[in-house]
Specification:
By secondary structure, this protein is of the alpha/beta class. It contains 10 helices and 14 strands. It has 2 domains: about 280 residues, Spore Coat Polysaccharide Biosynthesis Protein SpsA, Chain A (Alpha-Beta Complex); about 45 residues, no CATH class. About 45% of the residues lie in helices and about 20% in strands. Strands 2, 3, 5, 6, 7, 8, 9, 12, 13 and 14 form a 10-stranded mixed beta sheet that branches. Strands 1-4 form a two-stranded parallel ribbon. Strands 10-11 form a two-stranded antiparallel ribbon. Helix 1 links the parallel strand 2 and strand 3.
Length: about 350
């Protein structure tokens, strides 16, 4: 069955959907747009897909701009590729494993209009079964990120400033996107893209807002299933964030995600910063001119190399883990025996804590 989306000649909003390999999730996402997309806001939909997904999608969906890449561009790369095609003054990143609900775009756009101090606005994310997934997030001094509650999920249901809103559903002013240089593609392929963007937005005197009236159902992480690889990339990109924003991170609260008092302090700090921005009255021009020229071939070449470097780093990580596991096993089996000293000399340099 064909999926038919509206395509405005003069869009105010550009919806950018970076797509993975799950065509079923992408189709569900696009169907939700046909069902709940607004009639009062002119918009366009841009899908940045792999070549495999493009071949399956083309001809069965109308009203979208479809661009493909033979290499994985990652979240940031796909977002930047989509931005190069976007005509709207407001950009909305939407994950391919998300399905929007009624009023989703309207709430984001109305908030952008009412709050010029907001550089980015995110919404409520629910799990497919309706449980609360996120209402924005807290960024701690260590570069770690946590939910805005401790223990059982609590819904606040009010507009408020936060440190981070996920790219699963995130409105960003196009002029500010261009001002900060777009999404930083060193955070490859996923994780910490939105955290880095939030830091860049605040560096320019704008804030990130959470709007609960904009809601999606999000199949979190459904587009990838290698947990070990996810964990590796997550920690790798956190270290990249700390390296990039180390001095600015000192302004965040010390990491205490399991402390209700620390969570409240972190949320209060975000509100204080937001009030300071409102008083300064920062406003960014709607149009600072066209975005810088985009070289798709150059991006493709960079990401071929990025993919190779990442796979090489992951292979080295797995090798180190296997060596450590082997050293641990040997240490435990030889503890208290005459062979322990010999094993310590042979394996102690690999993981010295097991051979003190």
């Amino acid at each position: 069955m064909s999926i038919d989306l509206p395509l405005s000649d003069a869009p105010r909003v550009s919806v950018i959907i970076p797509s993975s390999t799950r065509i079923d999730l992408l189709r569900a996402c696009l169907r939700s747009l046909t069902r709940f997309g607004p009639t009062s806001i002119p918009y366009e939909t841009i899908v940045v897909a792999t070549s495999e997904v493009e071949s399956q999608l083309r001809g069965s969906v109308t009203g979208i701009q479809l661009v493909s890449s033979p290499v994985n561009l990652g979240m940031a790369g796909a977002g930047n590729r989509g931005r190069a095609l976007a005509r709207g003054e407001l950009l909305i990143l939407l994950h391919d494993d998300a399905e929007i609900e009624a009023g989703w775009m309207e709430a984001l756009v109305e908030t952008a209009d009412a709050h010029p101090e907001a550089g980015a606005i995110g919404g409520k994310a629910l799990f497919p079964d309706g449980r609360l997934q996120s209402e924005g997030a807290i960024l701690w001094r260590t570069g770690q990120v946590s939910l805005t509650w401790v223990g059982e999920a609590l819904s606040f249901n009010r507009l408020r400033a936060v440190d981070v809103c996920g790219t699963s559903s995130l409105l960003v002013r196009a002029a500010l996107w261009d001002l900060v240089g777009g999404l930083d593609e060193q955070f490859y392929p996923v994780y910490y893209v939105e955290v880095d963007l939030g830091m860049a937005i605040r560096e320019h005197g704008f804030i990130v807002l959470y709007q609960p009236n904009s809601c999606i159902r999000h199949h979190q992480g459904a587009s990838t299933n290698n947990y070990d690889f996810k964990l590796f990339v997550f920690h790798r990109n956190r270290l990249l964030l700390v390296k990039k924003w180390g001095a600015a991170l000192d302004n965040q609260e010390p990491f205490e995600s399991d402390s209700p008092a620390a969570v409240e302090r972190a949320l209060a700090r975000a509100e204080i910063f937001a009030e300071q921005c409102r008083r300064r009255g920062n406003v960014i021009a709607k149009n600072l001119g066209p975005p810088k020229s985009f070289d798709a071939a150059e991006q493709y070449s960079r990401h071929v190399e990025k993919s190779r470097e990442l796979q090489k780093a992951y292979a080295a990580y797995r090798t180190r883990r296997r060596r450590r596991a082997f050293a641990r096993q040997v240490a435990c089996s030889l503890m208290g025996t005459k062979l322990y000293e010999r094993a310590r000399r042979m394996l102690g340099h690999i993981i010295p804590q097991y051979f003190p």
